Amino acid sequence: MSEWKKICTLEDIPRLGSRVVKSTHGDIAVFRTADDEVFALHDKCPHKGGPLSQGIVAGKIVTCPMHSWKIQFESGEAVAPDVGCAKPFAVKIEGGVVWIDL
Could you give the 3-state DSSP secondary structure of residue 48? Predict the structure, then answer.
């Protein structure tokens, strides 16, 4: 069952950056790519819990600021040789407004 929640406008998320959304699931990092695609992941690196929202965005990957693990936006999976997953959340943009499925 979907529970879509309006979180912000696309312009509220810096290009190649993120913003954090508080939820009952914990903090969620919402990222914007250079191509204005938006992705959301649990804001906790699967390695040591680093804040992914403070990482560097390149393509469809964020690099954790603590130990440079690379996490894929679409799946939440770490890039090999690292193993682990940050829970991804479905996101959509309608009329310039960003929605997240909690």
Answer: coil
Range of the domain at 79: 4-101
CA–CA dist 99, 37 (Å, integer): 13
> Residue 64 belongs to a domain with what CATH number?
2.102.10.10
Which residue, among 88, 50, 91, has the nearest Cα to 72 in the 3D structure?
Answer: 88
Tally Cβ neighbours within 10 Å of residue 66. 15
pLDDT number for residue 57? 98
pLDDT at 102 over 90: no
Task: Express each pLDDT in 40-58 by its tens digit.
Answer: 999 999 999 999 999 999 9
**In sequence order, what E strands does the chain have?**
4-9, 17-21, 28-32, 38-42, 56-58, 61-63, 70-72, 88-89, 91-94, 97-101
- pLDDT tens figures, 65-77: 999 999 999 999 9
Number of structural domains the chain divides into: 1
